[in-house]
């Protein structure tokens, strides 16, 4: 797999944003948390992840390049908030009240749980499944778990079991 080379200006914009929000948090919390490590190895449709015990943020380079400043403004404070919550409160619900407080009161950012970036360029092969109310696209991993009878999935809306669509 080839790694996407990020422009230096993009990496600098990420670090400016990270440093801005980290400084806000350190002032508000009266702490001196160090800069977390930032890598660009997140894959798939996930924009970013916070690796709590490693004090590291992993960002999806493809989605970053495709979405630019909007990605930086949304994803960097979101993942930083996860790290800060872990340091302040320990292990808690990922998007619970502590995280929402950190996002809104400390960082001054809307507490949004998921991104709405177009993921077509990073989405792998999918398989069509149906329920009683709609069609669903499942990843290769979920499809294979169904085939191996390790898992079954239900629709969040109607609760019915997902079945492979007729081909």
Automatic annotation (TrEMBL):
Domain SprT-like: 16-165
InterPro entries linked to this entry: SprT-like_domain, SprT_Zn_ribbon, Uncharacterised_SprT
Keywords: Cytoplasm, Hydrolase, Metal-binding, Metalloprotease, Protease, Zinc
GO CC annotation terms, alphabetical: cytoplasm
Annotated binding of Zn(2+), by residue: 78, 82
Places the protein is found: Cytoplasm
UniProt-annotated catalytic positions: 79
The organism's place on the tree of life at top rank: Bacteria
Any one Gene Ontology BP term: response to stress
Needed cofactors: Zn(2+)
Chief location of this protein within or outside the cell: cytoplasm
GO MF annotations in UniProt: metallopeptidase activity; zinc ion binding
Cofactor: binding details: Binds 1 zinc ion.
Family indicated by similarity: Belongs to the SprT family.
Record protein name field: Protein SprT
